[in-house]
Amino acid sequence: MSASTASMRGFSLPELMVAMVIGLVLTLAVSVLVLRQESFRRGVSSGNDLTSNAAYAAYFLDRELRSAGAGFSQTVAENYGCLVHASRDKAQLLPAARGFPAPFSAVPGSYRLVPLVVFAGAGANGSDVIAVATGNAGLGESSLPVAPKSVTAERLTLSNTLGMRAGDLALLSQVGLGCMVQQVNAGFVGGRVPVLEFGGSYAAETIGGLGIRSFSTGNSFVTLLGNLVGNQPRLELLGIGAGGTLFAYDLLQLNADGSQPLVEGVVDLRVRYGVDTGKGGQVDAWVAPSTAGFTAAELTNASVASQGRLQSILAVRIGLVLRSDLVDKTEVTPASLTLFSDLDEALRYRFAVPAGTTNQRYRVVEFTVPLRNIRDSR
């Protein structure tokens, strides 16, 4: 064999087989690394989505609940538990004759004004629904007595109208009668003049059988709730809808006509009341909203006992369960999750992960919101 022929000789069969085996091993190793990297990336992406949704849900609920009762807590006897009558452009809003839209259809349409109340199990899949009311007048936030026999279809007399302006929403209330939302007339400027004039979309002579002249007996009060522009009051329902979305419903429909989706991926909402049982000004017990004396029906019945219990609720503890849309190839979530695990057994809640979704990532988020405007400070 010549030198030129020897230099042109290729790999032998054993050499080729060894090279192929090495190549296959390297390919397998690279494939495993790529798959693990993709799984890690999906896990990180899923976790980031849950973190973002949880952060926004917590921020939104804290913002909406923290000031519950602001603006109307100075007149507890007249306002707490009163049946609210409201209309817009002559169409009755409250009481809601046809009930509320999904996901709040299980909440009674006869809405009663309280700072915050929880309708246990009234949301999707038995989750809780929160009703919260917050005034936003930004003034002295004290109710003014109505002069006897001064109420007509369009005006009434107070001691003064300082700080009142056009577009303000005023709440007329009286023990045993209920309360009615009215709107201050366009062009009105308050001051030392005692006559308050009504007119506009939310002004009405009669709503749901209750007439404005019924508030002329001398035991009625006017409380400013806020204004149509800028500092709007918030009377709303918060809860979980089908498909795992946190919804809000504006009871006065100031900016929307229906339920508004807020945060996706929220599949459960549970609440516990933080109660001051010893009248020491701090939470010393946690109570479930299904407990006797603290059910929605009992807290909103306008009795002296219920008004006292409402003033004893100094905080609420919120528990959320969130779920990612991304599906893993393996199970990444246990069959059940526990909320309020540091409380007594009777106050804990165990969320059963729906069958077939344990390969989706879940996260439990809990936080406490202090309620600053619950008690009558007069």
UniProtKB/TrEMBL annotation:
Bilayer-spanning residue ranges: 16-35
The keyword Membrane is assigned to this record: yes
Pfam families attached to this UniProt entry: N_methyl, PilW
InterPro entries, A to Z: N_methyl_site, PilW
Keywords: Membrane, Transmembrane, Transmembrane helix
NCBIfam families listed in its UniProt record: IV_pilin_GFxxxE
Name listed for the protein in its UniProt record: Type IV pilus assembly protein PilW
Lineage of the species this protein comes from: Bacteria, Pseudomonadati, Pseudomonadota, Betaproteobacteria, Burkholderiales
